[in-house]
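Supplementary notes for students who missed Thursday's class. We covered one full example, reproduced here. Read the sequence, then the structure, then the short commentary at the end.
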Amino acid sequence: MNRQKKRRLIAYLLAVGLLLASVVGCSSTSAPTDKQNDAGKSNASNLVPKNGGTVTIGLPEEPDSLDPQKSQMATASLVTSFLGGTLLYLDPKTLEVKPHLAESYAASEDGKTLTFKIRSGVTFHDGTPLTAKSFKETFDRALSPDMAGSVTSFMLGSVKSVSAPDDKTLVLELKEASATILPTLADSAYLQPLSMEAIKKQGKEYWRNPVGVGPWKFESWKTGESITLVRNEAYKWGDGMAENQGPPRPDKLVIKFIKVRSTMVAAMDSGAIDIGINLPPKDASKYRKNEKFTLLESLKTGISFLNFNLSSATLQDLNVRKALNMAINKEAIIQADLQGEGEPAYGPLPPTLFGYDENIEQYAYKYSTEEAKKLLEAAGWKENAQGIREKDGKTLSLTMVASEPFPGNQLIQSMLKEIGIDLKIQVLETATMIEVTNKGNFDICRSKYAYFDPDVLFVFMHSSQIGGLNTGRVNDKQLDSLLVKGRTTMDLGERKKAYQEIQKLAVEQAYLVPLYMPKEFNLVNNRIQGVKQYPRVGVVLQDMWVNE
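Structure (token representation):
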């Protein structure tokens, strides 16, 4: 993959929140209430789950393909996750990676060899048995030149070779030790095993006729309208997240494509759909106390932030960067952008990701315009008659680029003007903004990410990524060393320490202004019981049933 294409792919993955977008991307900072975590739970204490019925889900986009190795769409990832499973799963309570289609796994002492023992008795929807060879063929296909530039090839980028010495044993040889490979292998969409028999049989039509090992089987696809899945009666290998280890209880799962958000809300109100994915924040409050619905809400696994271009002469001054941090009223930005449906961010990681420093709020910058002004004074910037600061004949003027016209943009502009900074705003198309930031033609960039692992900071902040997604041109040897340690050490305790040190260093050096962690909302009609939502895992349907 050429450098430009890889950069665009990574930017896309981070923008949509790979593995975490739509229903799979929800997480919570603390233990939510039962109402938040379990749809209909408060009404279901005396009810016994039963089989039968149809559940209808509304999605904002139609997938482009149901071949999980040939799509980059979040909606395709969601649908294919219903059809599949994978080697490992993420325990929602401990956030530990545990065996699923692998009954056990082990890492070599140097962390470069992973050996999995494959679970017996698992079959594909076409009856083909799942073996270690199934995974080898699946991963070899993902790593083939034909798949260059795909999500799966990116996710398996640390894999050097794959072998299957026998039907039960799968061996991955890595290019280097990787702390992120295990949580990556817990993705049941992109990295699920594929039936090579089905791929050969369907040929070019496989993308519309997928075959997996999951609880739901593909039945039909009405272009522009819906996809219908049916219960896999043979399923008896659920992961540890679900109480129901057997087939799903509903007969069918219908996935309707509803692009207009207001139409989605209207469909929920009328009962045309049972589960609405990605409810707009502005609509969340009216459903919180509605007895007909359960609102599942949680923080995303990422943050919105202001990224500084450290090649800008003005922003090379630490006092200026600190002043910018202290000038921003985050609560006001959350209200403007999200109607108050978010939480302030204090550093480069959200509390929904591994390694988050629970003490960060104590040493993060506090909102104070007076302290911000003092820092600018100390840096030699004096106010002129117009209230804008000057130094050596140069006015303190900065340019902020953004890919969306957030209401908070103007608030940021006015907050900086209050401390004597003239901020100009440019709202650009995403492709144009990527080009502008890659060239360094900006001072501040409104940025965001959603990801499943703190290794995302390597992409944004390691000096080797300058010219890529390290558009801020952060070049800090101490930070580089910690980022490498965070992505390579297999000791969880040491890895956590590394990320805590990274957060402290990022705050001390004021490399960015953390703004907020947005929430994601999913709405469930209470005729549907047992829909659960877990931190970092998202919505789980395996215990779902229809109460009618």
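Commentary. Residues 338 and 406 are 9 Å apart (CA to CA). Confidence is low (pLDDT under 50) at residues 15-36. If anything here is unclear, bring it to office hours.
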